[in-house]
Amino acid sequence: MAATAPTFAAHGTASFCAPAKIKVLLVPASPLEHAEFEKWASFVRNFDCLRLRDVPRAKSNVYPSSPLYQQGEVHVSFTTTYDPAHAYLAPLKMHKQVLGVLGLTTYDARTPACSQELPHVAGHLRSAHPNALVHRVFAFDVDPSDEDARASAGDGDLGVASEEPASDFQPPPTHTPGFSGRRDGGLFVFPAVRRDAKDVRFYLRTQLAEFVGALLDQLDTLVGALEGTPLETPRETLTDTVSPAIRAAMNKSATNVWGRGHTPLDAPPLPPRHTQAASTPPPGAASKVFGALSKRRTSATPTPAALPATGPLGSARHTKVRGDLALLSGDLWGALELYDALLTVSNRERALAGGQDAVWFASALEGWAVARMLVARLGGAAHSEAPCLAFTLHHAKDKDKDKDKEVREPIIPALAWKDIAEAYALALTIYAKCLAPPQVQLEAQRSVTSDTPRDYTPPLVHASACLAYARFLLAVWASGGWNGEAFDQMLFGGTPPALVASGARHTELSANSGVYRDEIARAACTALTPALRTLPATDQIATLGAVAKLLGLVGYRRRLAHVVRLLDGMVSTLLARSFRARVQTPGRAPSLETLLHEALRLRVATTDTHLDVGYELAGMHDTANPALVLGLLACDTYGIDLLTSPLLHVPSTHILERARRRVVSEQYGPLLESIVGAEAPAARTLLPAFAQSAEATRTAKPPFGWTSLQVQLLKDLVVQSEAVADYVSMAFFATLLLRDFQGVLGAEEHVALLDGLRRVLPRASTSAPGLALRYWGPKQLLVALEVAPLPAHRRTVRRTRASFDPSPPEHGAPLPAGMQNPFFWNTGRAAKPADTPTLVAGEPCEVQVTLRNPLGVPLRIEALALHCTGVETVTPPVRTLVPPHSVQTLPLRVTPCAAGHLAVEGCSVTLWGTAPEVHRVARATPLGVAAPASKATGLEARPTVAALTRAAQAAAAGDARVWQGSDVDAALAAAAMPPPPACDVVRAMPLLHATLPTLGRTALTLLEGEVATLPLTLTNASDATIAFVRFELDDDLQAPIRAAIADGNLLAGDVHELEWQLLYQPVLAVGCDARTLELAPRASCTVPLHVRAKAQCAWASVRVCYGNPAPEDTTLVLRTLLLPIPMSVRPSVECLPLGFAAVDTHSAEHLAAQLAHTDKVTLGPSFLLRLDLRNASERWLDVVVDAQAAPDVALRMERSVLPHTTVRMHVPMAKQTLATTALQAPIPKLSPRQFVVARTPLSDEMQAACNAQFWLRNALLDSVRVAWKEPHTEHHGDVSLRSQWPSIDDVRIFSQPKVRIDLHLAQPAVTREALVEVVATLTNRTETPLQLRLHLVPTAGARLEEERAEAFAAGQVLFADGSESAAVHPSPLAPNAVAEVRKTLCFLSSGTFALHATAQVIPDTPDAPATVFVSTPLPVHVP
Questions:
Q1: Closest CA to 268 of 458, 438, 460, 429
Q2: What CATH number has the domain bearing residue 910?
Q3: Containing H/E element for 472?
Q4: What would the pLDDT profile of 158-211 be if each residue is shown by its tens digit?
Q5: Domain extent at residue 728
Q6: Does some domain include residue 280?
């Protein structure tokens, strides 16, 4: 292998389009740090696709007017290492060769090495890599101040140094395998002073295109020189690379194949040689091409006049090479034409028969498939105008057809990939048929000559073709068909997007693409032939690794396990060879320093200079087995985390610890220095801090590497450590296996590892005192952490003092009953609960900890305690056992000792043999949000690299705690863990007990309207004084009432009634002022609690808010105590709708006198109130009606009502009289915080009528009170009349009109056909003068209809003055003035008549509406 600088994609990313990529080697042109080289190499790798029109060519077959010239691309594959042994594949596989070498370095003209030695580096590159065609050096001038130095190297922008003398460039010998040709190149100096690197990108874009153009020109010249020379099928002699065991197995298989008549390693019989020239085989298969080319240049042998069509001198092989050149040059049209010229039916039949050019024909099929895919990727005119897009070999099925006749049919774009798949399948069939048996591969190279009619497929070519075909199918399958995503996957390689998919997803991908998983797996497994074992170990590992990756992507686990076992065997063989070679090496035992340097091959200088021979004499050297050190390096290469040590207190002198530090310094030191700087303190302290970081160990790591290979490697290292009796190493590798691969270990393996550690750890402690295991349990042991809220009677709330002390009502209105205003006092129920509970100093609280054990064995935790920050706490530890494959939740207790903030960050977990380690809850990923895909590849994709990069970036940002190494865990936890919720801890608070001793455990049973008083006992159970006590009262009727008010679809009167119910008739009321309550320590008091029974009320509650805040505190921290009061309200007496009837004054006063038990009562204008009272209970109840019939007349009525019966009671009452201003007053709002806007707008007249109705109803309800009582008991209550709303017509009956009209006859007797005088007395009860006009309307008796009665009376009653109307004088009638109007009538017939008087108010303007007032009818009987 060529010793070149390591990189994360050293051999380049494997892809389907590898035959179309020019391989260019990147090497450091001078001693550079790894990070510095990677920095400049990353800029170069960005230009892996160059536009065809940007690549300058001396001669090109693509015309500028062609669409391909505008759309085409030239692809480059940059590598940093290669295998020179693959040179034997030339020229069959030109893309396998390194065609260009590019040296990268920095430039400083002030340094003698730059000015004197750099111009000669290109010559050294030619000597080191003679098979490449172009060798150049790109130097980046990073010093912007040295203009003279930059000018001496060239011009200021792109300095090109003079090329080396011709004597420095000696051509390599002609027998050197691989490509060689014209030596051009030199030193190119780039200015690289811009921070955004725009200058570097600009010059690289130009120079790389020129570099590739020069390379292609030389390759074109070389391929043209191959005309007329024999092109042999490449083949490598593999005798030296095969172990004796494999060789014996192959001999045995060969004996079975060829029979006993031949020796095992003899080749099959060859045809006779016809020419003398072929009697002497060429020195090597790869050198045939170049040997013939050099002879062509030096000798004058004439070219044959006519070349054969097949064979080494045939035109088919040369056409295939020219097609490969066109494919590398980006001339896809030319490549398709050249390949298509070879894809004939006759050539196919010859290849399937194993004749000459079979391998070349199969390779042409590969080239056609790649060119066909690239043309499809370009699309547009480059695709529509491209020639030879159809695969013609599958059309000629009829033997009668001409086999060389081409049949062209239209291609469906979505199914174009099937032509490529068929071409590749045919190529694999030919490769497999021509694959030589193992004994032929082991035979000397003389078995293949120019006259051999059979071409044998090189095993590496066959394996590469199988993998390329599998990658092609995988790209189509994972992308869901023939689309742009599939094109990018085939071109750039890597892992497809559908890396992890379920069975349903696999089925969906297969349905969309037409490719099935078994096809991909079958193509990959085709590479596993017996001939694969004849390849070198590196090629075997590369092939097996690629097959394993493909099988893992498609989910074939059993095949994957088989391939991984083969891979493990290959790696184990290499390790065994190294162990045997180390044991068989004679001589004096080397020192520890020599062991480290020879085993690790590290370039960093050691800092462990304090070791001497004394350690070796003390037995230290006995356990310093270099195989363990090599195994440690293999662990890091395979992706096992060595950055964090699995053990604590390992002696720094131990060989394994020193090797681990050396490996970590080599692998991660340059990365760390590139981020924080080589002189930063973090560059020296961050790596040791990571070794002891618990968070770095438990950080969720994506899968990296082959798990089964890693597990087997660690198991082998444990066995090796046991063989050398190194107990510290045994504990190291066993803990590493237990820590990082617990998910793949079985229960028996877990038990065996734990038992072994229990035996090994005490023995290891003898040589390493204080040795302890790091936490080896599940990484995500802690699933959830929740601070349980305090019990209800111990919780705290924060309230403002203003919410408990509302402002006094306006205009001296009385306060609500018991100071319990629900609009002020119940605001706490709508408060949003806090996210984290508030704790109290000195009082314990519980934290619910959820643990998950994914292992197959029980997890015994020796000590589990909470880890808190903030105030001082007391956290007692507990022991627990988590069953296998289970989730367990257990409570842990924490007691804060002082006020402040408390954050419960996680749990401290102690397992057997481990030190305590803090676990935190991982941050949850949002649903539907995928984790960000890492763009890193190779060893850079290791999880430890990402973790170290995050910490280094934090250190570079100036976080001193990180670079000092003291807070690496906090830096990682901040990125992976959510910030723990901080709980407020308040000072110690008192504790109150509240009881209702008379309530008991049953519901409070009351009749509707009954009021009961319960004693509420408050007891201070603490040693602190309770200076603040308030009550919040609630019931199940308040919420519907508030909702109805907030709805806004109510009239103002309805809103007032609901507010009145809440404020003045609540279900609960406290009988004292809570502001005067204060409880001394251990003291008690009793507070009366009034309970009013309301219908449909099922419960009520009393919430006591108490505490001991300071007088100046505006925000109070209080505790609350809730006392529920279940209620059972039975029905009592209910009032049916009220009735109102007009009655004359005399009858009303007579009835009132009887009810008042007096001789005479003066009521004035009156009405009769009808009360229908129904006893809805099961008891005999007495109903009492108290009415204020007039200001000085009080009436009382009492009746007994049987159960479920109704009694009707009539109460005579004086009509309600209110001033006009009182009637028009707006309806008040009882709550200053309640604003209600009705959704139904009312006109002014309707609003005035509603206001008058409201005030008259209030006056009526204030005059009447209905109560009930149970005989012989003390139970009594009120019957609510608040639900009664008289109609507008009812209001006119029981209220005094604004203009009162009284009618009476001047003489007591009325006779027929005699004149009678009617006197109408009008009284103005308004506050404004009125112009009135009286109308007198007679009607007949009630037996006639109203219209007929009025018409009949109009004919039987005559007015003396001839008019029914008369003006009222004085006019206008002053307020409170009285006027009389006299009218003379004559009744023409006898009967019963009624006289109706109406007073019309004459408006001031003609357009104003008229107002009419109606009197009570005056009955007149005419005999």
A1: 438
A2: 2.60.40.10
A3: helix 459-478
A4: 333 333 333 333 333 333 333 233 334 478 888 877 777 888 888 898 899 999
A5: 564-776+937-968
A6: no
